[in-house]
# Entry
Amino acid sequence: MELLSKKTLNSLFVPGAFIVLGAVLLLDTKWIALSQSGVTFFYYAAFVAGGLLAWRFHSNRILFSVIVLLLGHHAVQWFSQRGAVPGVVAFDAIALLIPLNFAFLTCFTERGDEGRTLLWFLALLFFESVFVAAAARPEQPVPGFLHFAFIRTYHSHLPQPAILMFSASSCLLLIRFAQFHRATDSGMFWSLVMAWLGFHAVHSRRSFNDASFRLKPPYAVAVVDIDHFKSVNDNYGHDTGDQVLRLVASRLARVGGGGQAFRVGGEEFTILFPNKNAVAVIDYLDLLRMNIESSTFRVRSGQERRKVSRPADRRTGPKRKTSPPAKSSTLLSVTVSIGVAQSRPKAYIDEIIEEADQALYRAKQGGRNRIELAGPQQKPKRIRSKKAARP
# Structure
């Protein structure tokens, strides 16, 4: 069996790899300007095309894969609207279940005995739906296995069990493709790759896109970025960085003025203010900025073992009983910079967000911990507080 033959590689990468590459270039770069309505059209067109292919080739696996992806997306979207905790739990659970379903689907027959295959598939979806609904209840403790850390020093947007399941399912599909050279296995593999890329995007991105698409003028957009966040990660570790993100997210969730906050990047958030202009939301944002600046949390510090200097030769000289390095704690606070823009006639939401991004850039250049307005608005800018300090 020639796994690396030209014919095998060609059938694996064409057209799946090119479709994935085209989707990434279309959605995650600024090379092509695509409105939200265009994104929505291509989104549903992809599912319709998958259904038509399943019907044309009488493939149960294609049809069931399309249904799994569609239901998974809508479940994440629905639970995200119920609150932060249900949304995060549903996201983690579905990130684990989608590759697991793809692994199960490799055992399904393509043709014949459709009734029995459909029964097994519906039973699988039923039990998984009950599990997600039960796990995502606000009062329900989060199942520990969803966040089990096999490698405690590794941090990612996806929980490690989901990463392991994505890897195992991808390998299984590649093995099946190498054995049988079926286009279905290749298509499912690239669908799983695209799902992986989608999950690695911040889980609130889709909710943000939907909310921004529904916005009607007038509205204001604020882009919020945590100052010196990389320094926090470098100096205190990724666990502390995660605490900072949760602290800032909790303050953003309580912003006034009817604002709705979304995390759209590593340390970047966007707030949408329906029926408001930029000047009207300045006071709410300045209160938010001051609340974040005044919020502190305690970080345990102490020299890490790998950073402690050691004698040149530990085997020579008198032995002395040494006490372990004393641990202390440090109060850590962070600040944010904010750029604000407002809707304009005949301007798309993407243009307004870009203007807010430019205003954020000026806030960073102007000293951080401040608010900058985009466009001709002449509102006094909130300068950096004297007690703000770089972590």
